[in-house]
């Protein structure tokens, strides 16, 4: 049995350490990983815990991220608790296998430290890799700070392994801004954390030789559609389990999580919808604007997949104008948040004016000033009752203003 | 096999490989197992092969290397004796030939159209080690 680590009531951890500690407490059977900035310290920390005797499982050193996720798929199919971490290019290299993991319904947990995708080459944070994973069939949860990275990592195992879900889960946090910034984190003690997650239950394990099975069988047009429909249904229905896990976590820690987080939204007339560490900056900006009498609020989907359409509709039911902030190069379209938020609201009674802001690519700072400017911008739309600013704008970009539509 | 609806298929495209497992499947020889209709054992998946491995019993030392390394489990070994190639599943990758340790090789790649008996008659000589 692995050694226990006695933790302080409040530890000073960066986001990577928060991930690594939660992974240690989960007592994972197999971690197969390849180092990539900025997620390297997650597995580095995990490997150190293992070599120091705090973990019983296997750590598999592989030659690439494609192999890392392949190793995870094999180990999870074999019947073990499995996790890994990655970022950016490494994540891109994993993509083929991400679909395999989801299609085989393997409850792998992936710690994704968000970073820009090349080219140009850039090790800093944005959400390009997170967006790339959107359709892979994984549950995607977003942490806005180190505490949440720790909490959600623990919850990630519980969600993925729930017998009603059995889908891989990705926990996202911002590269460097969250992953490399030391913050106060209140951890659970080892037994408490492990008890919260629970023992691993295997389903159709390949190492059960008396019940041999084929994984991810070839299906073609006769069967593919049915398997994919079943997978989609499981993903859509997983919201109920996620909500339950959030609630049981609250009873243990008194920390509350929602599939959509709302800040200052009670009487808000304008709102920013954002992801990652920008959420906290936006809340700060909204509070500043409230001192000037501007009723600003912030809505942040905690859950990216399955996308919480109903909860979004509910959170934004009274606002007049919305800015959706996308931290990913839009690739010839309006940003993902713009599209999803519009889709969520289009069927409802409230049809606010929705703008799209592209910001912070490749680690560009998102300042209070930038965010307040966006709030002021959309207030013009709210006051006019129609779109008077460009639909899509770039915020914090040098050179002449760039906007579309 | 009946067509099932989306709510009836096994999650994860997991298929049972054998219809009814009687006793310990690991103790049953490949040919004696009761394969499920979904198992590709009953289907030829080797049509694309261009070169085929030919097995020479006279040289083989039954080291099982080829059996371990074949990515398609297309080496037939019974009771730890190498028997031959399962040409219904062999993809012609040549890994078995590569890992065969004997000199001269007990497995060699030949043109798919080559007659096996003729290949065995024209088996190349032992390679002289360079001093
Ligand atoms: S050629 Fe490849 S597939 Fe065929 S028996 Fe040898 S190793 Fe197996
Ligand atoms: S690798 Fe060569 S010597 Fe060994 S069992 Fe196979 S054919 Fe025989």
Provide an overview of this structure.
The complex is a heterodimer of chains A (about 400) and B (about 130). By secondary structure, chain A is α/β, with parallel strands linked by helices. Chain A contains twelve helices and 17 strands. Chain A has helices spanning about 15-25, 40-50, 65-80, 90-105, 130, 145-160, 190-195, 220-255, 280-290, 310-315, 335-345, 370-385; strands at about 10-15, 30-35, 60, 80-85, 110-115, 140, 170-175, 185, 215, 260-265, 270-275, 295-300, 305, 320-325, 355-360, 390-395, 405. Chain A has a seven-stranded mixed beta sheet, with helices on both faces. A seven-stranded mixed beta sheet of chain A has the order 10-12-11-14-15-16-17, with helices on both faces. Chain B has three helices and five strands. Chain B has helices spanning about 65-70, 95-100, 115-120, and strands at about 15, 50-55, 75-80, 80-85, 105-110. The relative contact order of chain B is 0.18. A two-stranded antiparallel ribbon of chain B has the order 2-5. Helix content of chain B is about 10%, strand content about 15%. At the A-B interface, strand 9 and helix 8 of A face strand 1 of B. The complex binds iron/sulfur cluster (2 copies). One iron/sulfur cluster binds near residues 61, 63, 66, 99 and 102 of chain B.
**Strand tally of chain A, please?**
17
Determine the number of helices of chain A (DSSP H or I, runs of at least 4 residues): 12
Strand content of chain A: 15-25%
Strand and helix order of chain B: EEHEEHEH
Sheet with the most strands, sense and barrel status of chain A: 7 strands, mixed
Distance between the termini of chain B: 62 Å
Order of strands side by side in the largest beta sheet of chain B?
Answer: 2-5
| Number of DSSP helical runs of chain B | 3
